[in-house]
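User:
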Amino acid sequence: MSEQAVDDGIAIARDYYDSPDADDFYRQIWGGEDIHVGLYETTSDIRTASRKTIERIAQKLGPLDGKHIVDLGSGYGGAARVIASEYGARVTCINLSTKENARNRELTEAAGLSDRISIHDGSFDDMPFEDGIFDVAWSQDAILHAPDREKVLDEVARVLKPGGLFAFTDPMQADGLDDARLLQPIYDRIHLPDLASVAFYRAKLRERDFEEVEVEELPHELGRHYARVREVMLERQDEAGLTDAFVDRMRIGLGHWVEGAASGHLNWAIMVFRKK
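Assistant: Predicted structure:
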């Protein structure tokens, strides 16, 4: 992919997340602090389900007290505040949306965690950090937006210490999906030619000298999450001040994710790899 295409992809993602409709949608519908897929085994509440995902990931990593974590695509910083306040970690957030970062700073200061969490405007495919300084790289449902995912993995490998953990989730296409037309509406929506897959991450991280710790595949949670978000959006459109045009686009777009998960063409997983 050309450098211009990468820059264009980053700009598209930044402009979308900084738009007023998107900000209202993620703050008021998606949960307020988290912009990622939830776990709905025991709840239908988006905020609660999103919190369960954070807890599930953290439990896979062992003690985090005193560890330095970089959160790639940190959004409003919900995960950062949980792992700083409840698990004792120090967190460095990097995110391309200036609007989300501003809210992250407000919420972090209100929580009294500004001494444990730093927030950086920037892209995670070109991080302004020194080599080998982080114990854990953490990312939730953000890498799919990267125009060059291999460059993101290069950066993760660069900033992690030897033995450091890379824990992440990502909406993905199913392994072995050969017909791009099956997911073309989703590719069009994210303005990229494809999604990654579990096989992609396994192969590319192996090339970068990572070993697999655990991959927990949960494609059904992807469908549940997008279906629940769509339902709440339609219930609360007026309350959230969302425009009809935005809601109509999101209703169709969310439907593509729900259908893709139901058909077995999409996957979602909690993945943990260790840098050797």
